[in-house]
Structures are given as structure tokens and as C-alpha cells.
């Protein structure tokens, strides 16, 4: 494809004497082939501009970089915000993309919301996919990209690949890193959703205001003019998100007990799920949602909002909520033991998340809540006793085990977790053994929660050159252990 064609389509001026044949886009000089447009960005670890000469040597025909950069021998697109310019150009190259794109931002709930949106579309017979922490998910398969919001080249490549496979609808996660690094620029989305905001990633964003501003780029720029903002209305930051969307002239679709479009009237937890009473367009609906926890109810209703905002039928959409499958590693019902105990696997690996998962499960426990959990090595040590305290106070039986000990001594990590716990706590380092003990202990009426790893597929042992990932999947192990109890 000619560079001039891409520039014209993107509304970008072509630097003089600049036409060339373009074969691809790269932001890593090691991926440059003849005909590539190279994005040279100043990052946290490297200055991409240091690799411009090597990229041109490898055949780069154009370089998108700051005005100060030197790009002799290639067309230089100079811009103070090169990531954004690169995205605009690349979006013209990676075509077609699926016709309906929706993006979800917020601190929590992004993964579940995009996955539930995909499920609802699928139940309506639509070829749908999701992109996020679980990877690129189509039907029952997920292919990891390593990030929640992949880099711009991977993202656009995924979108056009999906379109070529016949996928028409994609829901994707817009992380604050992704939004602030213009990883999802390019194709404008029809609908964007905001779930909630709480303290996170302040190493990167400095203040909560900066963090919120990064999230709001979704409404300020990424959602197309004339598009819709779906907002969970019950969060402390919701009113400000609504303000951003209104200022931009987006159509508002609010969801929650304070929601004007999908209004949550009542929520009653019970059995393996919860009953939701909602009002939509003057009609009342009762939904038996097969997911646990107030936050999963919120995610399911925001997903319904996304589907309705992109033209879904109300009755079919609310009906689909009754048939949702639990999301991988998000209060996922992994097994039911022969004694009838449901076993849940959740990604909760911070004190807050562990507390929330325990609170979500508590109304479903007739007997005891048994929690298996640990804390990671080479990460925030302060959270270890705090997680211990949360488990000690919230569970009836807590078993401390190993979870990605990395470069640290796993016994020392467990000791720090146990420091926050009372004397009833048990310690079983081997995670498989710990899960087996929890399931063997469980009786009818009990509930087991295995927390920390969620969708992860391995135990990380060692660090640096010594690091190894031993295959480990909580869901598989829970199923095996539950099966073994039945024999
Ligand atoms: C802090 C952060 O977000 N970093 C991301 C960012 O890196 P960066 O721009 O700082 O890049 P850098 O490594 O300094 O390199 C600068 C440039 O030189 C290039 N380079 C570098 C080395 C080389 O040999 N050749 C070369 O060309 C790089 O490709 C890059 O373009 O851009 C890279 C490419 O898109 C990402 O891979 C990288 O994610 C790192 C690995 C990461 O761990 N990010 C996490 C924090 C993240 O993004 N998380 C979010 C949030 C998840 C959540 O919600 O919790 C996510 O969306 O996953």
C-alpha cells in the first residue's frame, strides 16, 4: 500500500518526497522488515529513537517520531505526540475492522464485562469476540496477548484478523495504560463503558486525577462523535464520568440503582447466583443471574447496556443474562464436590479484592467458607499480613499456600501472611495439596474459594535468568481434586 494513500485516508500531510510502498507497521525495531513504518517512542525503559538507525537498516521506509529525532534515509513523520500519529496512520493500514466495536474502562470489572458482552452477542447468533486480560477470545478459545490492552500494532492486527474471520462485533478492555499510550487509537468505537474507579496504578499515573483523566480519554476521544457512553451510575466517580460524556455530546445510557436506563430495583443473592429485579424502558424484568456477587451483577448489567446501546433486543438481552457462563477466573465456579460444595476460583490477589470475593460468597454459605490463598513474591510485601487478616476475619477456615513465589523463599512469604492471621489458620505450601485439603474438608453447605491466580496458567518460581513457570491451573486442579473425592 502507498504511504500517500494512508496519509490521505488519515488526513495527515505526507512529508515532502515521501511516498513509499508500505508492507507493515512496527513499534519494536526487531520486528521491522523492508517496507515497515516504524514508530519510535520514548518509553519508560528505552528511548525508541535510539533504534531508528537500526530500523532503517532493516528496511523501514518511514519513521514516526518526535520532531527532535533524526531519521535519515526514511520519511520522517515528526510529531510531539508520535504514538497518536502512528496510530492514526496504522489504522488506515489494518483494514477492515469489525463493524461494531465497544470498549470498557474502569478499575475493576473490565474483563468480566467484555466477556459477558461477547457471550450475550453470541447467544443472539452474532459472530463476536472480546479482547482483554484473558486474551483474544472467540467462541471458547482465548489467545493471550500478554497485556490487558495490547500494543497498537497487535491490537489493530487482531481487529483486522477477526474481521477477516467474519467477526462483526468486538468488545475490548481499555486500560488506563492503554488509553494514555494511544494503544487503542484508530478505529473509533460506537459505545464506551465506564464501570468504576478506585486506587490503582498510582506508580504510573501519579494522582487519582491523572488516573481518572486517562480513563476519560475513552469518552473524550475514543468513542466516535454521536456515540454512546454506558455508565455504571452507582460509583463515586460516575457523576464525573457522565459529565465528561455529556460535555462531548455523547448519548448517555446509565445503569445501576441510580441508573436512568437500566434501573436495578432489587438484588437477592441465593443458591448459585442472584435474582435481579430491573426496569428498562418502562417495563420490569426479573433475571435469575447465574453469577455471584454485587459486582458481577453490575458487570452483567453494563454488558447488557452495551448490547442494547448497539441495537440489541431488550427481551432477548435480558433473557441471555440468565444463561451467562461464569467468566474465567472471576468467581468462576470450577467444580462441585461429591458432597455438593461449590468450588470457586477467583483472581483476587490484593486485600481489597480478597475481601470483596469473600463478601460476595458469604450470602451463599450455609455452612463454612473455606479459603485457600497466598501472596506473590517480589511484589508489595505490605499486603501480605493484610491479606492474612482479611482471610482470617472473613473465612471460617483459611489455608495459606504458595502463589508465584518468584525470587523469594515461599516459606518466608507464608510466614508474613500468617503474621496477620489468628491461630486457626492452616499452612500448606504445596498449592495442589492445599486445594486437595480444602475440598476434602468441605461438607454440604460449605463453599470453597481458591483465590489469587484466577485465569493464570502457571506458578512462577525463581527470578531473572532462573525464573521458571511451572504449569498450574487452579480450575483444573480443583476439578481433578473434586473428581478424586468421588472415586
Ligand atoms: C509501563 C508500560 O505500560 N509499558 C508499556 C509500554 O512500554 P514503553 O513505551 O515504556 O516501552 P519501552 O520498553 O520503554 O521501549 C520504548 C520503545 O522502544 C521500543 N524498543 C525497545 C527495545 C528494543 O530493543 N527495541 C525497540 O524498538 C519499544 O517497542 C517501545 O516502543 O509499551 C509497550 C508496548 O506497547 C508495552 O509492552 C509496555 O508494557 C509493559 C510490558 C507492562 O507491563 N505494562 C503494564 C503495566 C500494562 O500496560 N498494564 C495495563 C493495565 C492492566 C490493568 O488494568 O491492570 C495493560 O493494559 O495491560
Task: Write structural notes for this entry.
The structure is a single chain. This protein is of the alpha/beta class and 487 residues long. It folds into three domains: 3-93, MurE/MurF, N-terminal domain (Udp-n-acetylmuramoylalanyl-d-glutamate--2,6- Diaminopimelate Ligase, Chain: A, domain 1); 100-321, 3-Layer(aba) Sandwich (UDP-N-acetylmuramoyl-L-alanine:D-glutamate ligase); 332-486, Alpha-Beta Complex (Protein-Tyrosine Phosphatase, Chain A). It is 34% helix and 24% strand. The protein contains 16 helices and 23 strands. It has helices spanning 3-10, 52-57, 82-93, 110-123, 152-164, 176-180, 202-205, 208-222, 238-247, 294-309, 314-321, 351-361, 383-394, 410-418, 431-441, 474-486, and strands at residues 24-26, 36-39, 62-65, 75-78, 100-105, 128-132, 135-138, 141-143, 169-173, 189-194, 223-232, 251-256, 262-270, 273-280, 283-289, 332-336, 342-346, 369-373, 397-400, 426-427, 447-451, 458-461, 468-471. The strands form four sheets. Strands 8-7-6-9-5-10-11-12-13-14-15 form an eleven-stranded mixed beta sheet, sandwiched between helices. Strands 16-17-21-18-19-20 form a six-stranded mixed beta sheet, with helices on both faces. Strands 1-2-3-4 form a four-stranded parallel beta sheet. Strand 2, helix 2 and strand 3 (62-65) form a beta-alpha-beta unit. The model has no long low-confidence stretch (mean pLDDT 95). The structure holds ligand UAG. Pathway: Cell wall biogenesis; peptidoglycan biosynthesis. Its main location: cytoplasm. UDP-N-acetyl-alpha-D-muramoyl-L-alanyl-D-glutamate binds at residues 148-149, 175, 181, 183.
Amino acid at each position: 500500500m502507498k504511504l500517500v494513500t494512508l496519509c490521505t485516508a488519515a488526513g495527515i500531510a505526507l512529508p515532502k518526497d515521501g511516498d513509499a510502498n508500505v508492507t507493515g507497521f512496527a513499534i519494536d525495531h526487531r520486528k521491522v522488515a523492508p517496507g515497515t513504518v516504524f514508530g519510535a517512542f520514548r518509553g519508560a525503559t528505552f528511548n525508541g529513537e535510539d533504534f531508528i538507525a537500526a530500523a532503517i537498516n532493516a528496511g523501514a521506509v518511514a519513521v514516526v517520531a518526535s520532531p527532535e529525532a533524526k531519521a535519515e534515509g526514511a520519511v520522517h513523520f515528526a510529531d510531539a505526540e508520535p504514538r497518536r500519529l502512528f496510530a492514526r496512520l496504522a489504522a488506515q493500514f489494518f483494514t477492515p475492522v469489525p463493524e461494531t466495536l465497544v470498549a470498557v474502562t474502569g478499575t475493576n470489572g473490565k474483563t468480566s464485562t467484555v466477556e459477558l458482552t461477547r457471550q450475550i452477542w453470541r447467544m443472539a447468533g452474532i459472530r463476536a469476540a472480546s479482547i482483554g486480560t484473558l486474551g483474544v477470545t472467540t467462541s471458547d478459545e482465548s489467545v493471550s496477548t500478554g497485556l490487558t490492552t495490547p500494543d497498537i500494532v497487535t491490537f489493530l492486527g487482531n481487529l483486522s484478523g477477526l474481521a477477516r474471520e467474519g467477526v462483526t462485533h468486538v468488545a475490548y478492555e481499555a486500560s488506563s495504560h492503554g488509553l494514555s499510550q494511544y494503544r487503542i487509537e484508530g478505529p473509533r468505537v460506537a459505545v464506551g463503558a465506564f464501570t468504576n474507579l478506585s486506587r490503582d496504578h498510582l506508580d504510573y499515573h501519579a494522582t487519582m486525577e491523572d488516573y481518572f483523566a486517562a480513563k476519560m480519554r475513552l469518552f473524550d476521544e475514543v468513542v466516535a462523535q454521536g456515540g454512546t457512553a454506558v455508565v455504571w451510575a452507582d460509583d463515586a466517580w460516575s457523576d464525573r464520568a457522565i459529565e465528561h460524556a455529556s460535555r462531548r455530546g455523547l448519548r448517555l445510557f446509565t445503569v445501576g440503582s441510580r441508573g436512568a436506563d437500566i434501573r436495578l430495583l432489587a438484588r437477592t443473592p441465593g443458591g448459585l447466583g442472584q435474582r435481579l429485579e430491573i426496569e428498562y424502558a418502562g417495563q420490569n424484568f426479573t433475571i435469575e443471574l447465574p453469577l455471584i456477587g454485587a459486582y458481577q451483577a453490575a458487570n452483567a448489567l453494563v454488558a447488557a447496556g452495551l448490547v442494547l446501546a448497539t441495537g440489541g433486543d431488550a427481551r432477548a438481552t435480558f433473557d441471555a443474562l440468565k444463561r451467562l457462563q461464569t467468566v474465567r477466573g472471576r468467581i468462576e465456579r470450577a467444580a462441585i464436590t461429591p458432597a455438593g460444595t461449590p468450588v470457586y476460583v477467583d483472581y483476587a490477589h490484593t486485600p481489597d479484592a480478597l475481601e470483596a470475593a469473600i463478601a460476595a460468597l458469604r450470602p451463599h454459605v450455609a455452612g463454612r467458607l473455606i479459603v485457600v490463598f497466598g501472596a506473590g513474591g517480589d511484589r508489595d510485601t505490605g499486603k501480605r499480613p493484610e491479606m492474612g487478616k482479611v482471610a482470617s476475619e472473613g473465612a471460617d477456615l483459611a489455608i495459606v499456600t504458595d502463589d508465584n513465589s518468584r525470587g523469594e523463599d515461599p516459606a518466608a512469604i507464608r510466614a508474613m501472611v500468617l503474621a496477620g492471621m489468628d491461630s486457626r489458620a492452616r499452612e500448606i505450601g504445596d498449592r495442589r495439596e492445599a486445594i486437595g485439603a480444602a475440598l476434602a474438608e468441605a461438607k454440604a453447605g460449605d463453599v470453597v474459594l481458591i483465590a489469587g491466580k484466577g485465569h493464570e496458567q502457571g506458578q512462577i518460581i525463581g527470578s531473572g535468568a532462573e525464573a521458571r513457570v511451572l504449569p498450574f491451573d487452579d480450575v483444573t486442579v480443583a476439578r481433578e481434586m473434586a473428581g478424586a473425592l468421588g472415586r
